[in-house]
C-alpha cells in the first residue's frame, strides 16, 4: 500500500472568524485519520483497551501553506515518516491537499505506545502495534531510527 487517504468534508464548526479552517481542526482531522487507520488495520480501540495500551504523542506540529475554506474538497493522506524497528517510537506525517492537488498543510506527530495501567511507555511494544505500524506506507524520506 502506498498511502492512506480520505476525503474530508469541511464543516461550519471547522471555521474560524476569518472564514477559513481554524488551526485546531487540522489536528482534529489528523487524530481522527490516525485512529481510523489503526482500526482499519485491525488495531481497534477494543484491542488497545483489552491489552492496556494506546498511542501517546510527544510532539504535534502543523505547517500551514494554503487556506482551506468551506466548500473546498480536501484529501488527507497519511504515511510513516520515521520509526524505530520495534515500533516503540514513530513519526506520522499527514498532508492535506485541496481539489487542485495543492498542499494546504503538513501535520507531523511524534509518538510512542503507553501502558495504560502503569502509565509508562509500553515495553516491549505490543505485537499487534508492531505489525500495524510496519504495514504503514512510508514517506519518500522515511528514516528507520
Automatic annotation (TrEMBL):
Q: Which SUPFAM superfamilies match?
A: Thioesterase/thiol ester dehydrase-isomerase (SSF54637)
Under Pfam families, the record lists: 4HBT_2
Q: Which InterPro entries match?
A: 4-hydroxybenzoyl-CoA_TE, HotDog_dom_sf
UniProt-listed CDD domains: 4HBT (cd00586)
Matching PANTHER family: 4-HYDROXYBENZOYL-COA THIOESTERASE FAMILY MEMBER, LONG-CHAIN ACYL-COA THIOESTERASE FADM
Protein name, UniProt field: Thioesterase
Amino acid at each position: 500500500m502506498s498511502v492512506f487517504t480520505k476525503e474530508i468534508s469541511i464543516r461550519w464548526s471547522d471555521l474560524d472568524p476569518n472564514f477559513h479552517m481554524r488551526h485546531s481542526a487540522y489536528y482534529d482531522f489528523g487524530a481522527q485519520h490516525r485512529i481510523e487507520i489503526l482500526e482499519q488495520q485491525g488495531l481497534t480501540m477494543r484491542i488497545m483497551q483489552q491489552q492496556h495500551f494506546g498511542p501517546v504523542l510527544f510532539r504535534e506540529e502543523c505547517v500551514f501553506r494554503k487556506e482551506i475554506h468551506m466548500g473546498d474538497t480536501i484529501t488527507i493522506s497519511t504515511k510513516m515518516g520515521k520509526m524505530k524497528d520495534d515500533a516503540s517510537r514513530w513519526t506520522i506525517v499527514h498532508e492535506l491537499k485541496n481539489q487542485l492537488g495543492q498542499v494546504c498543510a503538513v501535520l507531523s506527530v511524534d509518538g510512542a505506545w503507553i501502558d495504560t495501567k502503569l502509565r509508562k511507555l509500553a515495553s516491549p511494544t505490543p505485537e499487534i502495534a508492531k505489525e500495524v505500524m510496519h504495514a504503514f506506507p512510508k514517506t519518500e524520506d522515511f528514516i528507520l531510527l
